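Incident review: delayed structure delivery

Summary: a single-chain prediction request sat in the queue longer than the usual turnaround. Root cause was a stuck worker, restarted by the on-call engineer. No data loss occurred. The affected request and its eventual output are reproduced below so the record is complete for anyone auditing the incident later.

Affected input:
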Amino acid sequence: KRADISVTVPSVKILCELKRDYHAEVWTAIEGQLDRFYTPDPDAKGFGVYGVFWFGDKRPNSIPASPGDRNRPKTPTEMEQLLIDLIPQDMRKRIAVIIVDVSGEV
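Output delivered after worker restart:
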């Protein structure tokens, strides 16, 4: 298993997991991939970045239903907050969530 992006500078490694907003595992990959496989890397020191590409009206498929039957997000900001809310409290200082809006809207 490898992170999607790995950036290494002296004594620090930043590991990133990336997903499209409509990926089947978009809601579970923070714990199921990033924290499970990548943040344990000794050089990452438990830290990681979870990036999601927001496609807006240009996405070919719907965003999967979020856990707990919450409404699907309508904006990148809503998606970011839903993802942060899914991170267990003790992990929130170690995991950053970044939404990249590739919808082309300004």
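Verification: The first strand starts at residue 5 and ends at 9.
Action items: add queue-age alerting; document worker restart procedure.
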